Amino acid sequence: MRGRVLRPGDAGYAAAGLPYNKRYADVRPAGVALCADANDVRAALLWARQFGVPFAARSGGHSYGGYSASHGLVISLARMNNVQVDTRSMTVRIGAGARLRALYAGLAGTGIVVPAGRCPTVGISGLLLGGGFGFSSRHLGLTCDQLLRTEVVTAAGEVVQVSGDSHPDLFWACRGGGGGNFGINTRYTLRATEVGRVSVYQLEWPWREAQAAVTAVLSLMSAAPDTLSCRLGLGVTGGGPVTGGTPGRSVSALGLYFGPSQDLAGLLAPVLAAARPERPQIEDLAHPQAH
Questions:
Q1: How confident is the model at residue 249 (pLDDT cuts 50, 70, 90)?
Q2: Do residues 265 and 214 lie in contact, with contact meaning Cβ atoms separated by under 8 Å?
Q3: Quick one: DSSP state of residue 121?
Q4: Which helix (H) or strand (E) element contains residue 124?
Q5: Which residues, at least 6 apart from 85, have a Cβ–Cβ distance to it below 8 Å?
Q6: 133 vs 31, 75, 154, 283, CA distance in Å?
Q7: For residues 139 and 73, what is the distance between their CA atoms, to the nearest angstrom?
Q8: How far apart are the first and last CA of the chain?
Q9: Residue 192's pLDDT is what?
Q10: Choosing a second label site near 69 at 20 to 30 A (CA), which of 44, 146, 181, 261?
Q11: Helix or strand (DSSP H, E) at 216
Q12: Rounded to whole angstroms, how far apart are CA atoms 53 and 4?
């Protein structure tokens, strides 16, 4: 391998072996293959097959289901995190180990975007292959809708280039069919879209305003243009006995608008009139910073 294999006790193993989702923190691998390229992935995969070692592929590691944790071998794509933006062809090439913070950093200042998710530590692979969505999805589509080509290491150890013209059935399956089901994806080429500045908002209400706020937000979004997105949340604030805080409840709404903040404020006006939020935030931002 061009990359490294880490075993328990090796420098770097503790960090490399721990999944982001601490629910699976006790699932420690016998080894972590820090792959540098598709050939490393192939070597790790064929070795695991030859010796009957269970394995899991890991990109960002957020997996709610713990699919990227294993007591055997973790085939880590974390080092394969390059982002190459081509404004002439309006494409973005992304290594399968890139997280969203790397994607947005690569897109900053280019004037083009790829619709993706909110959380900066989410891996592009889980989001794309699993059909994930974000604040841009209503207007620009899902991340998987932008896929033009992907490189896949199959269970047989083949490194194949997959597109609408090559292995079209596998290409179809990779566009939201779930990560890790059909092979280990190692690289993606995505279609980009030219976008100017956008605006964002964040609103929060005390629990006593919950009914009015939720009713107003749902009414707005039922007729809102696709250029407006919203995440409506009802949650607990202030921690609880474990953290020493005093638990409370609140309602929040936040999202992105493909247009200036002045127009966004106009769209939100019925919501603001129905239930007055505490310290509302409405501002213009460049798209990569708006997530």
A1: confident
A2: no
A3: T
A4: helix 124-129
A5: 92, 106, 107, 110, 112, 192
A6: 32, 25, 26, 22
A7: 40
A8: 36
A9: 97
A10: 146
A11: helix 210-223
A12: 18
Per DSSP, what are the bridge partners of residue 6?
A: 32
Three-state DSSP at 278 gives coil
Burial zone of 269 (CB within 10 Å; 0-12 exposed, 13-18 middle, 19+ buried): exposed
- Does the pLDDT value for residue 64 go beyond 70? yes
CA distance 95 to 82: 5
Q: 3-class DSSP state for residue 37?
A: coil
Please count the residues of the chain. 291
Q: Which pair of tokens denotes residue 282?
A: 């409405």
**Tokens matching residue 95:** 């290594």
Q: What is the torsion angle, in degrees rounded to the nearest 10, for the CA atoms of residue 182, residue 31, residue 26 and residue 174?
A: -10
Long-range contacts of 80-89 (CB under 8 A, 24+ apart): 80/35, 80/36, 80/37, 80/186, 80/187, 83/107, 85/110, 85/112, 85/192, 87/111, 87/112, 87/192
Which H/E stretch holds residue 149?
strand 147-153
Which pLDDT belongs to residue 243?
58
Sequence-ordered list of residues with C-beta below 8 angstroms from that of 244, at least 6 positions apart, any chain = none
Q: Is 274 helix (H, G, I), strand (E, B) or coil?
A: helix
* Mean pLDDT across the chain: 92
Q: How far is CA 263 from the centre of its chain?
A: 28
